[in-house]
# Entry
Amino acid sequence: MSQSNQRVKPRIWAIVPAAGAGTRFGSDLPKQYHRLAGEEVILRTLRLLTEVTRVSGIGVGIAGDDSAWASLLPRLPEGVWSYKGGQTRSETVLRGLSELIRQGREADWVLVHDSVRPCVQVQDINRLIDETGFGSPGGLLATPVSDTLKTVLPNREITQTVSRESLWRAQTPQFFPVDLLHEGLSKALAENLDCTDDAQALEYLGLSPRVVLGSSYNLKITRDSDLSLAEAILDLQEQLPCSE
# Structure
């Protein structure tokens, strides 16, 4: 057997940034700790990630003053560990990557997933891994934009209609080489470049991650009203356990 056929694929780790306060949610309790169908949102998310059998472990970045995380410790799935997050999402992800590198995992790959996306389905994550195929620079789940888009002035007057032909909504997980994402986020933070998602950090390096078709059911819980919608999605997924 040739050496190339014997080559072992990189291991996959997950990083879940959960250090944000969730100010838009309208509650003193961070949104990831609110209950969804009887269980904390973040716990549902973590349980789902552990169902992806190729994930070797999950790092959760929590705020330094987080007082809710400790209550979850007895119920955490196996393989979940935590670390102190940063002031921004990018800083929190970067710290998780730095921890993986300290463990000698710089040649591995990472799935970065929002703690408040508990409705993503395992088959979609597996498709992301398979379609990306460990080909640098990686990829992310996304869906094509279907709404008509407008650019609007501060007074809410429309200035133009924007073509949606090549526009996609980025989701998570996003799947990248550990060392490459660490380089991109480090550059962005050093140069005060804003990253609204992890793929943007690789774009700053001149790279072009690919999108992999996800599902509109992969809701990001942002406001209190999203909890009811997420519960309805979970109920539907139990009845029809296939991705949209």
